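Why do we bother with a discrete structure alphabet at all? Because it lets us treat a fold like text: something you can write down, compare, and reason about line by line. To make this less abstract, here is a complete entry for CBS domain protein. Read it the way you would read a sentence in a foreign language you are learning: slowly, and without expecting to understand everything at once.
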Amino acid sequence: MKKLVDVSTIMTQNVVKLNLTDDLTKAESLFKEHKIRHIPVVSGNKILGMLSYTDLLRISYADAADDEDEIIDVTVYNMFTIEQVMTKRVITVTPETTIKETAEILANNEFHAVPVCEGDLLVGIVTTTDLIRYLIEQYE
């Protein structure tokens, strides 16, 4: 297995993002439309936080609804802002961080995605799914 491969080789570059001015209804729509579980929150392209689908589930009954259901509990979502719900202390990696180091960060923390940044600027995202796909490729 290759040992010192940069995370940039497996990161998603075309990242779905949210702004602080977006609402949680939009966030849920993006989660469902793109079939993703993590969305970086940015100002311009500067990383401010991370919102996970689990964050939404904590404040709503969204997990009780059918994923195909277009009815969203707007009342609950309007009670909170993205800034109130997102994780603000985000651990990031650089494109040159190795896949192994990134995997260790995810394995040792309680989240499943890490933004890839150059300074404060978001350039990608790596999820546990990306890591599993990479591992599978190593055995082909």
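What the structure line is telling us, in plain words: The chain has one domain: 7-138. The beta strands are 18-19, 38-43, 46-52, 113-118, 121-127.
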